[in-house]
Amino acid sequence: MLKNIGEYRTYFDILKAEKKKIGFVPTMGALHEGHLSLVYSSKANDDITISSIFVNPTQFNDPSDYRGYPRDLDRDIEILKSAGCDALFAPSESEMYPEKGSVAELYWTGNIREVNLAPLDSVMEGKYRPGHFDGVTTIVQKLFYAIKPDTAYFGDKDYQQLAIIRRMTDELDLSIDIVGCPIIRESDGLALSSRNALLSKDQRAVSCIIYNTLKSAQAQVHTKDVQELSAWIAEEINAEPLCEVQYVEISDPDSLAPVLKWEPNKKTICCVAVFMDSVRLIDNVSLFP
């Protein structure tokens, strides 16, 4: 386990001297099979697979959500070992966000740039979690700058995040290939998420309604217009008393702009966010009219 940038750079110099292609899997820990699918994708395509674990405080809007985020570093290390991950970068908060005015802080200030995310950050998660993607792009930039990967792997479950990281990588002209990997689901369809561990037994039992409703929606694009389908999805999920829909967005998969009407053979994406008490779950499916 590498705990700071100095330790990592020593390791990196060895890898580059050997002309190794580096694959990178950034995570916030509380690892599950979804994360491991990213590790396996990297191992299939890269010479070396490096993961990171850092619970990033600047992407949480609710301090209690940050405090309650599941953490078990020892367990995560064993999981990464069993998956064949070559190295783990697990920095402290002070390493990634040093004291203002310190030499370390000036190091980041000189190397991290602002990114124009509009309009990708004004919808869905961006609408309900202001500043969230500023935190995401800041920490991902820092991790990219520290790790210097050739390829980086992200899950399709956080679809908007993936779109924004691709925008950031293009805008900053970073020579990193961003790879999106399919959503991994439980046997009942619930998308794997570290937050699933926070669900009560009763909540977990009914949480599959989210994906089941989205799957049913895929079959209804020929019988409902966009607005009707969006309303139907919200009504179906809200019919479960333990669920409260925050948003349903049917969007263009590239621009994330809302889709107002179906266009033949044009892919769209349907993204949802649902509260189960204080636990917030997101999911998405592709729609093909």
Which keywords apply here?
globular; 2 domains; alpha/beta; Pantoate--beta-alanine Ligase, Chain: A,domain 2; 289 residues; 3-stranded antiparallel sheet; Rossmann fold; 5-stranded parallel sheet
Architecture blueprint of SSEs:
Elements: H1 5-17, E1 22-27, H2 33-45, E2 48-53, H3 63-68, H4 73-83, E3 87-89, H5 93-96, H6 103-111, H7 125-128, H8 132-147, E4 151-155, H9 159-171, E5 177-181, H10 201-206, H11 209-218, H12 226-238, E6 244-251, E7 268-276, E8 279-287
Parallel strand pairs: 1-2, 1-4, 2-3, 4-5
Antiparallel strand pairs: 6-7, 7-8
Per CATH, the class of the largest domain reads Alpha Beta
How many DSSP H or I helices?
Answer: 12
Instruction: Compute the CA-based radius of gyration.
Output: 20 Å
Distance between the termini: 48 Å
| The CATH topology of the largest domain | Rossmann fold
**Strand line-up across the major sheet:** 3-2-1-4-5
Strand content: 15-25%
Low-confidence stretches: none
Return the structural class. alpha/beta
The averaged pLDDT comes out at: 95
- Looking at CATH, the homologous superfamily of the largest domain is HUPs
Structure summary:
The chain is of the alpha/beta class and 289 residues long. The chain contains twelve helices and eight strands.
Summarize the structure in words.
The protein has about 290 residues and is an alpha/beta fold. It has two domains: about 5-180, HUPs (Rossmann fold), CATH 3.40.50.620; about 195-285, Pantoate--beta-alanine Ligase, Chain: A,domain 2, CATH 3.30.1300. It has helices at about 5-15, 35-45, 65-70, 75-85, 95, 105-110, 125-130, 130-145, 160-170, 200-205, 210-220, 225-240, and strands at about 20-25, 50-55, 85-90, 150-155, 175-180, 245-250, 270-275, 280-285. Strand 7 (about 270-275) and strand 8 (about 280-285) form a beta hairpin. Helix 8 crosses helix 9 (about 160-170) and helix 11 packs antiparallel against helix 12. The longest helix has 16 residues, at about 130-145. It starts with a helix and ends with a strand.
